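Minutes, methods subgroup
Present: GH (chair), OT, SY

1. OT presented the first of two proteins processed in the latest run. Sequence and structure tokens recorded below as shown on screen.
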Amino acid sequence: MTSIFDDIRHAFTRGSNAVTQLILINVIVFVSLILVRTISFLTGFSSVYDLITLNLGMPAHILRFLFKPWTIITYFFTHEQFLHIIFNMLNLYWFGQLIREYLGNKKLVSLYMLGGLAGGLLYLLFYNLIPYFEHRAAFSIMIGASASVLAIIVAAATLLPDYTFNLILLGPVRIKYIAAFLVVLSISGAVGDNAGGNIAHLGGAVIGFIFIKQLQRGTDLGKPIHAVNDFFQGLFSGRPRMKATFNRTNATGAAAAGTASRPNQSEIDLILDKISASGYESLTKEEKQKLFRASQK
């Protein structure tokens, strides 16, 4: 048991794989809820579990949400059903690895967070502005990482539309078709029993597409997420901020060298186009190095 906790601790303190970290957070919350539910029901205090889930899930009614604004974040780390979390985590692993490999950890985390936020906002808008959904708003609560995960799926399909996965019974399938199928599935379910969840999926899908298109134009929509993440990492790491000083005689040369080492957006766009057309393995060693340096910005 100690080794499990050590592995989890190392994943966050020493690891640099954002896919693993996001999956671990979801799994830890899921297992914690299972334990709380089991203990609370066995001891006759089931209301404790209900209270916790009510404060993690995102309410549809705008007034209830205003009293629980944190739920627009906690909902996309919360699952109750085993199949729900398995499906989401498998997709997060498969498609998240692609985003991480080509764009880096920071942009993966940005996509996950922005997808969840966009899904939550669209959920609120639909349930409070469209008459068809208004009667459901009073008792609807949403949980699950599906909006965040679909943002990552659509982003991967926008970035690498012809990349293929080998699916059981189907064989090789381009990920643009997988993404399109999931989007159509969400549209078809927007008026069903899980209408709120499917609406949130669409919010995530839209932000995934926009994120990549804006990134290809040189705009990183994830900068606010990076800033918040860096702030909290610095806050909890306990490490003092480093202050750099420069020798005036060498400052100009060093700046020029630093600038030269970073590929510009037009170079990255050409590399991404080449990946879309011929796959990652078609890149030269120099192009792979440029892509890696760009992902660290």
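2. SY then presented the second protein from the same run.
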Amino acid sequence: MRAGVLAVVAAGGALGSAARYGLAEAWPGPAGGFPWATLVTNLIGCALLGVLMQIVTTRPGIHPLVRPFLGTGLLGGFTTFSTYAVETRDLVAGGHLAPAAGYVLGTLVGALLAVRLGMWAAGRWRR
């Protein structure tokens, strides 16, 4: 089973990373500008993770490879803490302290709310 888990995490991660790259290419931000693409990517990923967790923890019979493929692989590859950290550092280094603070707080609060919203939406959909 370990080889199967590794394979689905790798496949999901490749797909999620490619989707994130595609979104960043489709929505480039100006140098020193607010990193909207990363913020939106992370919020979408968090909402989808909330949906996934609501489904896999409340619905019996989910294949054991669904969670590692979608959660760790696809959504783990789609969301990005490293880019978030680098973009925050770049904003601070460029003297854009207010946007940097907004980005940090917006990501943290937004991510928590997005997970909760995803869980709520999945719960309502199941009813």
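Chair's summary of item 2: The two ends are 33 Å apart (CA to CA).
Next meeting: continue with the remaining queue.
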